[in-house]
Specification:
Helices cover about 45% and strands about 15% of the residues. It has a five-stranded mixed sheet, covered by helices on one side. The relative contact order is 0.12. It has two domains: about 160 residues, 3-Layer(aba) Sandwich (Dna Topoisomerase Vi A Subunit, Chain: A, domain 2); about 120 residues, Arc Repressor Mutant, subunit A (Orthogonal Bundle). The longest helix is centred in the middle third of the chain and has 17 residues. By secondary structure, the protein is an alpha/beta fold. This is DUF1835 domain-containing protein.
Length: about 300
C-alpha cells in the first residue's frame, strides 16, 4: 500500500495559527492532553489509563466526556494507524509540559513504526506558536529524525515516568545520556516537583511562595511572574492556579491581596514542614508517607528518612 506523505502533530491549539500560516503540506492533528499533570499510571491497561485521564481532565480542567472523546480519544485512534504515513513530524517546545507529551508520543510511535519519525523544536525560550513562517520553515528544515536508539530510549523513559517510583527515573537519568536534547532538563524539573526534605513543598509551590513574598498580590501577577521565573515548566494559567489552590489558605491568604500567612513564612524559611494535599506526579502518588523527598543539598531525591520532622 502506498504511504501518505506526512502527518504533523502539534502540541496544543496555540501552535495551529503559526503552522497554517507557514503552509506546510501534509495532514495535521492537534495533541491536547497534558500528561505532565495528574495521574499517568503506566501499569494500567490502556483503556483504563485513558479512563483515568478523562476523569482527571473532567474534574480538574473543566472538560466533558464528549469533548475528551473528540479532542483526545479520536486523535489517539488516528495515531494508532500513523504507519500509513511515510513521515510523522512532531512540533513541540522545550518545556516540561511539551516534553512529557512528546515523550509519550515518541514511545507510542516507536511501536506503530511509521517509516520516519522526526521532531521540530524551536530554540530554548521560543515557542512554536509564536514563530514566523520563515522561522517555522527553518525549524522544519533542521528537524531531528529519530534514530531507533532514541525511540527505544523513549519507551524506557516513559515507563519510568509513568512508574510509581521516581527514584528509578532519577537513577536512569544519572547513569544514562539522554538522546533527546531537551528531555533531560525537563525531567530534572519534574524531579524537583517532589517534596523538599526541609519544607515539604515542590519547586513550583516554593516559587509561588517566593513570588507572593516578593510582593505579588493578585492572581494575574502570580501567573505572569511564575511564567517569567520558571518558564521551563511551561505552566499556563490553569496549572499556576492549581498550585496556588494547594497552598491556600494555610500558607497564602485565600483572598486578594495575597500575603503569606505566618506558617507560610516559616515554611519558606525552612523552619516548618507543610504537606499539601496528595497529588499525582507522573505515575507517583505523592503523600506525606511516600518514600522519598528532594534534597537541596544533594540536588536529588533521597529516601524520606531525610525528611525534616513534621512540625506543622
Amino acid at each position: 500500500m502506498k504511504k501518505l506523505p506526512s502527518l504533523h502533530i502539534l502540541n496544543g491549539d496555540a501552535s495551529l495559527g503559526a503552522f497554517e500560516t507557514a503552509d506546510f503540506p501534509g495532514q495535521v492533528v492537534i495533541w491536547r492532553e497534558v500528561l505532565s499533570e495528574g495521574p499517568v499510571i503506566g501499569m494500567l491497561p490502556e483503556q483504563e489509563f485513558w479512563k483515568r485521564r478523562q476523569q482527571y481532565i473532567i474534574e480538574n480542567c473543566h472538560g466533558t466526556a464528549p469533548e475528551y472523546k473528540l479532542k483526545v480519544l479520536d486523535v489517539l485512534e488516528k495515531l494508532n494507524v500513523a504507519n500509513v504515513f511515510f513521515e510523522v513530524i512532531l512540533w513541540f517546545d522545550t518545556d516540561l509540559m511539551c516534553q512529557v507529551n512528546l515523550l509519550y508520543l515518541l514511545q507510542k510511535l516507536s511501536k506503530i513504526k511509521p517509516a520516519v519519525v522526526s521532531v521540530c523544536t524551536p530554540v530554548d525560550g521560543k515557542a512554536v506558536g509564536y514563530l514566523s513562517p520563515e522561522e517555522m520553515h527553518h525549524v522544519f528544515e533542521n528537524r531531528q529524525v529519530q534514530s531507533e536508539a532514541q525511540l527505544q530510549q523513549a519507551q524506557q523513559l516513559w515507563k519510568l515516568y509513568a512508574g510509581p517510583d521516581p527514584l528509578q527515573l532519577q537513577v536512569y537519568l544519572q547513569q544514562n545520556r539522554l538522546l533527546e536534547p531537551h528531555l533531560e532538563k525537563a525531567l530534572e524539573l519534574h524531579i524537583q516537583r517532589f517534596p523538599d526534605c526541609k519544607t515539604g513543598l515542590g519547586l513550583p509551590e516554593t516559587e509561588i511562595l517566593r513570588i507572593v513574598k516578593g510582593g505579588a498580590t493578585t492572581e494575574q501577577e502570580l501567573i505572569e511572574k511564575f511564567w517569567h521565573q520558571q518558564p521551563g515548566y511551561g505552566f499556563g494559567d490553569l496549572q499556576v492556579k492549581q498550585v496556588l489552590n494547594r497552598l491556600q489558605s494555610e500558607l497564602i491568604q485565600a483572598e486578594e491581596p495575597y500575603k503569606l500567612t505566618t506558617l507560610g513564612e516559616e515554611v519558606l524559611d525552612g523552619k516548618r514542614v507543610f504537606s499539601p494535599a496528595p497529588v499525582w506526579l507522573g505515575g507517583a502518588f505523592v503523600t506525606p508517607e511516600q518514600g522519598w523527598c528532594y534534597s537541596q543539598d544533594k540536588k536529588q531525591l533521597v529516601p524520606s528518612d531525610n525528611l525534616a520532622p513534621n512540625m506543622q
